[in-house]
């Protein structure tokens, strides 16, 4: 199993996360953009409140921890290019006003798909705050669940 690569240069507003999946791009894109499948890999008791993957469409996910605390996340889609790229904003509702711009690309080579998430934060402090909040561990756990879901789908044991 591959792991994520997280790049966060000092004094930069940006992060770059990449992960290679042993699955075709069409399947990876489908699982990432299907509101019925997102809760299976986003984790932490996530429900999809709204997901309109089209330019100008909005999204909102709510995650619940074991103690029942809720954490909302939302944003707006700026571009959705089937199988290739998604651009959206991302805002944690617990810290309103700290919005980042994500560009997620899907590139296939030899039956494997590289998912790249390029995030641009409003400030270095916002970026560093996200990093210190456990961003790498959370991204790793989500991408591991996504890999498991993709593997199950390819073996005929999943709804994907």
Describe this structure in words.
With 160 residues, the chain is α+β, with helices and mostly antiparallel strands. It has four helices and eight strands. It is 27% helix and 39% strand. The chain has an eight-stranded antiparallel sheet, covered by helices on one side. A hairpin with a 6-residue loop joins strand 6 and strand 7.
List the helices and strands and how they pair.
Layout: E1 5-7, E2 14-21, H1 25-33, H2 38-42, E3 47-51, E4 58-64, E5 70-81, E6 85-92, E7 99-109, E8 112-120, H3 124-132, H4 135-154
Antiparallel strand pairs: 1-2, 2-8, 3-4, 4-5, 5-6, 6-7, 7-8
Structure in a nutshell:
Helices cover 27% and strands 39% of the residues.
What percent of residues are in strands?
Answer: 35-45%
Low-confidence stretches: none
For the biggest β-sheet, the strand order reads 1-2-8-7-6-5-4-3
Summarize the amount of helix as a percent range. 25-40%
- H/E element sequence: EEHHEEEEEEHH
Find the structural class using helix and strand composition: alpha+beta
- How would you characterize the largest beta sheet? 8 strands, antiparallel
